[in-house]
């Protein structure tokens, strides 16, 4: 497990975007060899998406041979609703890059048979050859995707009832009106993300500090589902200084002492431009 600590949100976002960029380019995707990327929503990854768009516009990165699978989607919210995760992904990322819409997979929260939709999503991931890199974010209670506290750590894509803490946190996107916030969602399971060949989790802000502490300094616990990734062979937690406030001083010093190693993963920034 790696813990990458940057000074602030912008630098953490840039480091994560550089890592994703380099992983895609080093993979050398092609028509018969797609890179498969798992993606999150929420406020935390927005800075990362902006940098990836920048790399694409500069000609350094193409998503032509990339397939994506999103973590979750609300149930019952129209696809074109401004707060649906379909809208989020297209407005904040997909419409700004060269990904084939057929390769951008997002769960359908309005499917007639929700369980069949979840099963089909798992099948599509398998048919794509599995996820090469799954990027995730967490809630203040340590949930990843919508795997709320108490979720099975071997769970698969399924229908979940949202915890009140999550509903309260998401109310800001619905004019603060709790009655407008969806109470159910389709989500990949912890086991689904654990199956990825590599996992990168973005954690920023003081309000996520206790969750980061639970994620890396205490044991694996289904009440803090992000803690499961202690057992993944290739997990990177990317955080800012504020998110480390609950960590032991020696933990922070240890991982900061490895930053020269971590920075070799993103420097130099590779490019798809000819000759680079």
Question: Mind explaining what this structure looks like?
Answer:
It catalyses: alpha-D-glucosamine 6-phosphate + H2O = beta-D-fructose 6-phosphate + NH4(+). Keywords: Carbohydrate metabolism, Coiled coil, Cytoplasm, Hydrolase, Isomerase. With 276 residues, the chain is α/β, with parallel strands linked by helices. It has a seven-stranded parallel β-sheet with strand order 1-10-9-6-2-3-5. Strands 4-8-7 form a three-stranded antiparallel β-sheet. Helix 1 packs across helix 2. It is globular, with a radius of gyration of 18 Å. It starts with a strand and ends in a 14-residue tail after the last helix. The model has no long low-confidence stretch (mean pLDDT 96).
Which band does the percent of strand residues land in? 15-25%
**What general form does the structure show?**
globular
Strand order of the largest sheet: 1-10-9-6-2-3-5
SSE string, helices as H and strands as E: EHEHEEHEHEEHEHEHEHH
Percent in helix:
25-40%
Tell me the Rg in angstroms. Answer: 18 Å
Structural class by sheet pairing and helices? alpha/beta
Major β-sheet annotation: 7 strands, parallel
Quick overview:
The protein is of the alpha/beta class. It has helices spanning 9-27, 46-57, 85-92, 114-127, 164-170, 190-194, 209-216, 249-256, 259-262, and strands at 2-6, 35-39, 66-70, 72-74, 104-105, 133-137, 158-161, 184-187, 199-203, 235-240.
Structural topology:
Layout: E1 2-6, H1 9-27, E2 35-39, H2 46-57, E3 66-70, E4 72-74, H3 85-92, E5 104-105, H4 114-127, E6 133-137, E7 158-161, H5 164-170, E8 184-187, H6 190-194, E9 199-203, H7 209-216, E10 235-240, H8 249-256, H9 259-262
Parallel strand pairs: 1-10, 2-3, 2-6, 3-5, 6-9, 9-10
Antiparallel strand pairs: 4-8, 7-8
Catalytic activity: alpha-D-glucosamine 6-phosphate + H2O = beta-D-fructose 6-phosphate + NH4(+)
Pfam families: Glucosamine_iso
Family: Belongs to the glucosamine/galactosamine-6-phosphate isomerase family.
